[in-house]
């Protein structure tokens, strides 16, 4: 463990757990949180959930699990350099996508649409719901009973109406306070990871190509450097080298700029962090380049007709599942029928959100194909 700064979150200044537990021996409070996340069922399901490409499209594309591991790795490197709590960053980053539906953002949008008359569906809030309520593994409580700061980091965004129902955890959204630097960092580590691995996965899939990426300044700059240093490199290695160098540039810039921001704002402790505007961030130049890359990915990859076509199937699948379960609750497993009695459509949303891509596809076949059991 690195040496923590006075404004880092620590086991000592933590606001603790909802249900009191004795401090662990041999590991910190946040190491315990990380361990609980890794042992959860929701974490294992991330292996079969879409990041951009649906699980059956290929074995080498990122899944939510490998994405989360990359985010954790990037997050930890930055935390160590900034004297922040690595274990907390690791716990937040490994848990940040636990609430995602099958089929990525298309699945989340479809479920949100299905739930519009019942409070909507937000994946950040669902991630919190997984660790607060839905995991069933401990003798004396539901959920994982994680520390306040881990839960704060998981709840990246939430609608105002939902923030009001969350007590202490929702207050920062209503009072416009900043979360810990560890939470801010986890958020940007997510962004660094997905922008870069989507370039890699996009090229691998053939949906985008190197010629198109020449338009993107951060990519073309790094590609040129790699080509100059290694002119005879195979294209695949050239892509890896370029992406690797891009990640390095972003991480280094984030560390330098954030150090400067923390110094300029005279941050001395955690209270100062909460009162200040967000301090973890890129320099102006790199931010501009990141936006350019994001726009490229949005136009050329996320809106590519093959991605849109798969998203359309995903939406259709989620909508059909939701409407079947909502109109005939006896189609739900017994446990969810009982939950439906108490919580209504939220039980259907929990059931669908918990599905992996392949489970949702199978469930769709079981419900709508006559030749299936
Ligand atoms: Mg993510």
Shape: globular
Tally of helical segments? 19
What's the CATH topology label of the largest domain?
Hypothetical protein af1432
Label the CATH architecture of the largest domain.
Answer: Orthogonal Bundle
By DSSP, the count of extended strands is: 0
**Mean pLDDT metric:** 94
**For this structure, what is the CATH homologous superfamily of the largest domain?**
Hypothetical protein af1432
In helices, the fraction of residues equals: 55-70%
**In angstroms, what separates the terminal alpha carbons?**
52 Å
Strand proportion? under 5%
Please outline the helices and strands.
Layout: H1 29-38, H2 41-45, H3 64-82, H4 86-95, H5 104-114, H6 123-134, H7 148-154, H8 160-163, H9 168-174, H10 181-205, H11 210-213, H12 217-229, H13 235-264, H14 270-275, H15 284-302, H16 305-327, H17 334-343, H18 345-354, H19 357-368
The chain binds magnesium ion.
Magnesium ion is lined by residues 67, 96-97, 190.
